[in-house]
Input
Amino acid sequence: MCLGIPMQVVEINQFVARCTAKGVERDVSLFMLQHENLAVGDYVMVHVGYAIQKMTEEEAHSSWELFDEMVRLEEEALAAYQQGNKPNA
Output
């Protein structure tokens, strides 16, 4: 499964942006969005090092909430498995 991760732009240097999400910073290529009007503070969807879509702050937070829920459910299932219980389906 491939995921795009929402990140916030904190610095732009031509076609490379420094982006952050949940305390993690990455350099991201803006090449695929070169015709978008991007600025520091904007949110982008990042996939394999490329910003592939500009998004709103609300869309970014909604995505992070879904990812957090997926992680929580996976952790619960793993804990149940380790205790010898079947996870809820």
